[in-house]
Write a structure and sequence with these properties.
single chain, 142 residues, alpha+beta, CBS-domain, three-stranded antiparallel sheet, 7 helices, 43% helix
Length: 142
């Protein structure tokens, strides 16, 4: 199999971030934004409960920036659930990079939560990580 064929066959479980940082729906936006800035994270999965980690949404820095134009985010009452995208697109651990890229490119998104059969958050796939992996494969062929 050629290098591109090998790259295409990579599974989500091989490149995902395991146990990603997440937030809950009742977390304050101010705290969530600070967490993202401090950890240099563009978006966070939202789970209903830290123990069960059932995925219910995703919140991004872009969501927060766009909302600033539409509402007063300085309100201490603004919470993650007010701005998150509910029922985000997800992938499973055995999905291939081709399947992941198809969703990312079609839906114009940079991160996909990885869930198990119970919709529990188990990982996160980042577009940047896919690009780094592709770069490694390309470098080896030159």
């Amino acid at each position: 199999m050629d290098r591109l064929g090998q790259f295409i066959e990579i599974k989500v479980k091989d490149i995902m971030i395991k146990n990603p940082v997440f937030v809950t729906p009742d977390e304050k936006i101010s705290i969530t934004e600070l967490l993202m800035v401090r950890k240099n994270i563009g978006g966070l999965p939202v789970v209903n409960n830290p123990k069960t980690k059932e995925l219910i949404g995703i919140i991004t820095q872009r969501d927060i920036r766009l909302a600033r134009f539409a509402m007063n985010l300085e309100s201490p009452n603004t919470k993650v659930k007010d701005l998150m995208t509910a029922e985000p697109f997800v992938v499973k651990i055995n999905d291939t990079l081709i399947q992941v890229l198809e969703i990312m490119l079609e839906k114009k998104i940079q991160r996909l939560p990885v869930v198990n059969e119970n919709n529990e958050l188990i990982g996160l796939v980042l577009q940047n990580k896919i690009l780094k992996t592709l770069f490694k494969y390309m470098k080896k062929t030159v």
